[in-house]
Write a structure and sequence with these properties.
heterodimer, A: 160 residues, mainly alpha, two-stranded antiparallel ribbon, flat, B: 499 residues, alpha+beta, Beta-Lactamase, Helix Hairpins, 4 domains, five-stranded antiparallel beta sheet, five-stranded mixed beta sheet, 15 strands, 18% strand
Chain lengths: 160, 499
């Protein structure tokens, strides 16, 4: 093959493909585990973006302003929340180390592979993830409120 | 290990609801922030993030609440069917939020550039506004200066006692000041509307051609004396100065003229010259008269002695006596002219003087075909003078007028009071007028236009001397073929004092 020039090699390859056809398998099958991996990547991506936001705010020295400081706190809580849910999903959806079952209304049971009570308690507490997402949302709201009031003050100052 | 599900359940449901509510509030805040400054890219970015978080919150909360409801109601299978979709939507929404968040740095930098550009634009705008303001201020100052300058020029133009005329390149009058209106005798409308040229004011076309040639060749004219003719046929001596103006800012070429009325000045100069001439002649006449008077007396005495003896050459002696008498009359007139004679001054009513002359000449057979009119003044026209001499002057003027009109003319005599406490005696005729060349000589002694033997040429010069002695003046206005007007001006007597 090497003795032929480049254009002749391409022509030869096309002829071989036409003479000897085989299955191409253009679309691949996706397993159900892809869902949780995609979801986890999403959380990691979210976590990474919040981390970037914190450092960008700090890098631009915006954290001296109350509004941006609150947004920084919000990003921090979103990071904690992401860490929390990534761990929870890892335990119950990826390695199946923990399993939760509703026994009756008001009662549930947590199973762990290892039977570790620490993991059980940890998993139970991590299920209360709203305790991290709500502060994140509150700080976001507070940050925006502060930015708005600062902006209004500036606008008034300009008017005066 | 068994746990109570109430904490998880309540935190999950209440937290989900709270997430949605706070997310909506945050979205509202970001919306207001953006409305406050729509051009701010960071605020737009915050609005996007809040929108993403709100969608995520709604999607997640809806999923969580639905999950709890389905599990509690024993519909776990349904939840298993819905769960992948709910989870996928959640994944997409928080990835979206994360994606938007990653662009914070770029958005911030873009915003800094936008704000910097805006600040520069505002700075440029302020500079431009200041420049515009300065420009406006300068325009106002310049306009004020221009207005002031225009006002000064306009005042000079309007108030000038000399005539100022601006013409176009064809000498058509564009502007003329009030002094010009008075000098030329035409109205402004007449001059402007009828497109009169400056040449229309000249009495003689050749004079205008001379002036025109001069200004065309030299582009200026300095103190040129010429004659203007008014619409009432009065001629005026004027001094004209002019120049060409090529105009600024592309305006057409114009001519500017300043015209002085030198009529009075010229008349005064003529009168002074006349007075000097007459004074010199008076001295000469007095000297000559004095030297001739004595020999004439001797000749007349001897002639009259011889006439007493009835001699054969009696007729010749009579001729000698007649001519010697004539000579003595001339000598007497010369003495009067030279003011060497003595006169007695008293209060004289000018109306009586003129009326006496009027009556005398009206009845005179030589002037019976001539219409003589007398219009006496209603006001007091008394002066300090010698009645005989004044009668002599008026008689001389009216007789001259009678000779000028031949036998079928009209003579108007008028007495009046002038505004300046003067008395005017006007004698006008419609005779042949006096030739222009003779006008300056009519008061000269021995100057006459009458045939030889009809006049001595002393009447007007003697009259002039009398009037001058009465602190008066004689003026003459004459146009050939139209007539002549003599105006005697005497001081009026008011309350025992001369005006």
């Amino acid at each position: 093959m090497l003795i032929f020039k480049k254009k002749y090699r391409v022509v030869l390859a096309v002829i071989l493909i036409l003479l000897c056809p085989f299955d191409l398998l253009a679309t691949q099958m996706h397993s159900s585990s892809e869902g949780i991996i995609t979801h986890q990547i999403g959380h990691i991506f979210f976590l990474f973006s919040m981390l970037t936001l914190i450092f960008t705010i700090k890098g631009k020295k915006l954290n001296t302003q109350r509004g941006w400081q609150s947004i920084q706190y919000s990003a921090f809580f979103f990071i904690l929340w992401n860490l929390n849910v990534i761990t929870t999903h890892f335990l119950d959806n990826q390695i199946y180390a923990v399993k939760l079952e509703t026994i009756s209304f008001g009662t549930l049971k947590v199973f762990t592979k290892t039977g570790s009570p620490l993991l059980t308690w940890l998993y139970y507490l991590m299920k209360l993830d709203h305790l991290l997402s709500i502060p994140a949302m509150i700080f976001l709201y507070k940050g925006l409120s502060n930015l708005l009031s600062e902006q209004r003050k500036m606008a008034k100052g300009v008017e005066i | 290990m068994t746990f109570s599900s109430i904490p998880i359940l309540s935190v999950d449901i209440l937290g989900s609801v709270a997430m949605v509510i706070i997310a909506i509030f945050a979205l509202h805040k970001s919306k207001r922030l953006r409305d406050l400054d729509p051009d701010n890219a960071v605020f737009l970015y915050l609005l996007w993030i809040c929108t993403g978080i709100t969608i995520f919150s709604i999607s997640r909360s809806f999923g969580h609440i639905l999950r709890q409801v389905l599990i509690l109601t024993g519909n776990t299978d349904i939840w298993k069917e819905i769960s992948p979709y709910s989870g996928s939507i959640n994944t997409v929404t928080f990835m979206l939020v994360g994606l938007i968040t990653l662009f914070f740095n770029q958005i911030w930098n873009i915003n800094v550039k936008i704000l910097s550009s805006r600040a520069k634009t505002e700075e440029a705008h302020i500079k431009l506004r200041d420049m515009n303001h300065t420009l406006e201020q300068k325009v106002v100052e310049r306009t004020e200066k221009l207005t002031s300058s225009e006002h000064k020029c306009r005042r000079i133009f309007e108030q000038s006692l000399d005539t100022i005329i601006v013409t176009d390149s064809d000498y058509k009058v564009l502007e003329i000041n009030p002094a010009g209106i008075e000098l030329t005798g035409y109205s402004r409308d007449e001059i402007i509307m009828k497109n009169m040229i400056i040449g229309s004011f000249f009495g003689d076309d050749s004079e205008w051609n001379r002036i025109n040639d001069k200004i065309e060749s030299k582009e200026y004219l300095l103190n040129e004396e010429t004659c203007f003719l008014r619409p009432d046929n009065e001629t005026l001596m004027v001094m004209i100065t002019g120049g060409v103006d090529y105009g600024a800012f592309g305006f057409a070429r114009t001519y500017h003229f300043i015209i002085k009325n030198v009529n009075e000045k010229k008349q005064m100069e003529r009168q002074i010259a006349q007075a000097d001439k007459l004074a010199a002649l008076g001295e000469l006449s007095a000297c000559v008269a004095h030297e001739i008077n004595n020999p004439l007396g001797i000749i007349l005495g001897y002639t009259q002695l011889l006439l007493k003896n009835k001699l054969t050459y009696h007729a010749d002696l009579k001729i000698i006596e007649k001519h010697v008498q004539n000579c003595r009359r001339v000598v007497s007139d010369l003495l009067v002219f030279s003011r060497k004679g003595s006169t007695k001054m008293s209060l004289v009513d000018v109306n009586k003087v003129v009326n006496g002359v009027f009556k005398f000449l009206n009845k005179h057979p030589d002037f019976k075909n001539i219409e003589i009119n007398f219009n006496p003044s209603n006001e007091s026209v008394e002066t300090q003078g010698n009645m005989q001499e004044l009668v002599q002057v008026v008689l001389n003027l009216v007789i001259n007028a009678c000779h000028a009109v031949d036998k079928n003319g009209i003579i108007d005599i008028e007495t009046s009071r002038a505004e300046d406490e003067r008395i005017l005696i006007t004698v006008s005729d419609n005779g042949k007028g006096i030739e222009k060349k003779n006008l300056s000589r009519i008061f000269d002694p021995f100057f006459t236009t009458k045939p030889v033997g009809e006049g001595t040429g002393l009447g007007l010069s003697v009259g002039y001397g009398i009037i001058k002695r009465h602190q008066g003046d004689i003026r003459i206005k004459s146009r050939e073929g139209i007539g002549t007007t003599f105006t005697v001006n005497l001081p009026a007597m008011e309350n025992g004092y001369l005006g």
